[in-house]
Amino acid sequence: MKKRIYIAYTGGTMGMQGTANGYAPAPGFLEAQLAALPELRSEMVPEYDIHEYNPLLDSSNITPAEWMTIAQDIAAHYDAYDGFIVLHGTDTMAYTASALAFMLQGLRKPVILTGSQIPLFEVRNDARENLITALLLAANYPIPEVCLYFGDMLLRGCRAVKLNAVGFDAFDSPNYPPLGTVGIEVAINWKALRPAPTMPDTLEVRPIAPARLGVLRLFPGMSEAYVQAVLQAPLQGLVLETYGVGNGPTGDLVFMDALREASARGMVIVDCTQCLKGSVNLHGYATGSALAEAGVLSGYDMTTEAALTKLFYLFSQGYTLDKIRQLVQCDLRGELTAS
Ligand code: ASP
Q: Which structural domains are found in the chain, ordered by start?
C-alpha cells in the first residue's frame, strides 16, 4: 500500500507568484502547478493531501499563533497519515522547526519542514527537488523527529539555522551532524537520530502561549539606556547572545547590575554564544563566571532559535520558575549537548 503524507502548506517562496512588489503568496497557485508535475504521479511517490492555509504567509509574518495552528493540524491528522510535510518560508523556518520539536510530544512519525529559495513557477528552481525529496523521505524513512530538509540535507529541526539568504544550501546545523544527506544515494545517519519516545503513548500537543521574551545581542559600546530598557519588567525571559564561550562585558557595572536585578526579579536569562559553532562554558573565563554569578544560565550549544522557542514552550507549561531554570539547561528534544 502506498504511504500517505499530509502536507501543511503555510506559505513561503515555494508557492509564490511574481507581483509588481516582488514574490507574494497566491491561493491555489501551488496546487495547480503540482497537479501539472508528472513526477508526482510516479509509482514511487507517496499519496499526499495538501492543506493550504488561509491566509498563506511569507514566513516573516509567522507568529507563535501559527506554530500552534501547525502543531494542532498535525495532531488532528496524525493517525491518518504516515508522515508530515510543512511547507514554510525559509526566513523563520528554523524558529518554527524548533517550536514544533518542543510542542509535538511523543512524536513517532517524520515531520519535515521544507520550502525553497526560488518559487516552483520559475524555470530554474530548488522547489521541485526539495518537495519531492521531502515527500520520499517522509514516506520511506521512520524518522521520529521534527526535521528540516533543504538543499540535500536533512537536519534536526531544533538544531537548524538559516545561514545563506541566497544559496540553495540555505540551512545547516553547525552543532549537530545532518540526520541525512541526499546525493545519488539517500544516506540517513541513523546513529544521529533520537530514539522514538516511549512516553506518552500518543502524540500530545504541548501548547505555546504568548510570553514576554527577548533576545539581546551583545556588542561593544552598548549604551546604559539600551541595556536598562531591554532588561526592564515585565520581560520574563531573555536569550543573551554573548561572545565566544559565553562571555560578556563584566567591566560594565550598569550591565551587570541590570542582569543581577532582572534575574533576582525572576527573569530567566539564557546565555547562547554569537558563534555558530561550539558551546557556552560559563567557567572558561572570569567574564563568563561573573555572568553565572549574576544569575545567567548556560544555553550550552543551543541555537538562538531553539533557546527562544524553548523559553516560549517552558513558560507556557505552567512550571515554577525553578523548574523553568532547570529544564532550560537540560536536553529535551536533542536541542543541546550539555558538557
Ligand atoms: N520571505 C520568504 C519566506 O520566508 C523567503 C522564503 O520562503 O525563502 O516566506
A: 4-205 (3.40.50.1170), 213-327 (3.40.50.40)
